[in-house]
Amino acid sequence: MKYPCITPDKVYPLGRCTEITETVLTVLVQRLARPTAPAERAMAAFVRSGGIIRPIWGALRGQFFQNATQMGALYVDVANDTVTVTKPKVEILPLARADIVNIADLTHFAEIAGKYWNAQIVANHVAPALAPLLPMLAIFGEQEARLVSVCDYMISLMMRDRFHMAERWVAEMPAPPPALLAHYRTRLPPCLRVTEDQDGRAAAILACRSSRAQGHWKDQAWLRARMQDIGGLVNL
């Protein structure tokens, strides 16, 4: 099995919403390119006529982050059992009834993340150089944390907003506990981490302002370089 488990107590399909949704959509697109079954021919004709089949992501029913597929006016979740395995594997609803909404801002993201992940969402003063794109730090327990959010939607939101939202978050939200800052100071390369004599909040604010002043919000080369920096650092 390609995705046997995430943790010993979280076996497939638990937690595999993204992988299942992306795989099904990839296979569907391939099959619609050479349709053979009646349903495939009908869907291929629908797309040729301007119909929409696309991935969507957002907050579902105010409780979860959700990957799904929009097919015309329908909401299609092919990974409906990845949180609660007793649910039907597939859910299809009129999109208007699905109650999936775009993430509006960082406060909205933090509200959903806190409930869904059972995490505390604070300001990223750990890696201030990445604060323009990843202004939040999700804390799980004592020594586990994750910079968030690397998903395309949230990265695009930070870029379109020219890092104003990110700056407000790192300026106003709670800082990570000192012990966590010290712990991760040894885990990051010098170019990314906050030093002992540095104010993490001030450094993160400065990074957001500097990136805005230099036009990084429209610089795809800068974005590619930062995404390379992020690499394996999302799970610190």
Strand order of the largest sheet: 6-5-4-3-7
Order of helices and strands: EEHHEEEEHEHEEEHHHHH
* E-strand count: 10
Helix content range of the residues, please?
40-55%
Radius of gyration over all CA atoms, rounded: 20 Å
- Tell me the overall shape: elongated
Beta-strand proportion: 15-25%
Going by helix content, strand content and strand pairing, the class is alpha+beta
Oligomer: single chain
Distance between the termini: 27 Å
The domain count comes to: 2
Total of helices: 9
- Average pLDDT across residues? 91
Low-pLDDT stretches are none
Profile the largest sheet: 5 strands, antiparallel
Task: Give a quick set of tags describing it.
elongated; three-stranded antiparallel β-sheet; 10 strands; single chain; 236 residues; 2 domains
Question: How would you describe the overall organization of this protein?
Answer:
The protein has helices at 17-33, 38-48, 95-98, 106-117, 152-160, 164-172, 178-185, 200-213, 220-230; strands at 5-7, 10-11, 53-60, 64-71, 74-77, 91-94, 100-101, 120-123, 136-140, 144-148. With 236 residues, the chain is α+β, with helices and mostly antiparallel strands. It has two domains: 5-101, no CATH class; 106-231, no CATH class. Strands 6-5-4-3-7 form a five-stranded antiparallel beta sheet. Strands 8-9-10 form a three-stranded antiparallel beta sheet. Strand 3 and strand 4 form a beta hairpin. Helix 6 packs antiparallel against helix 8. The two termini are 27 Å apart. The relative contact order is 0.10. The mean pLDDT is 91.
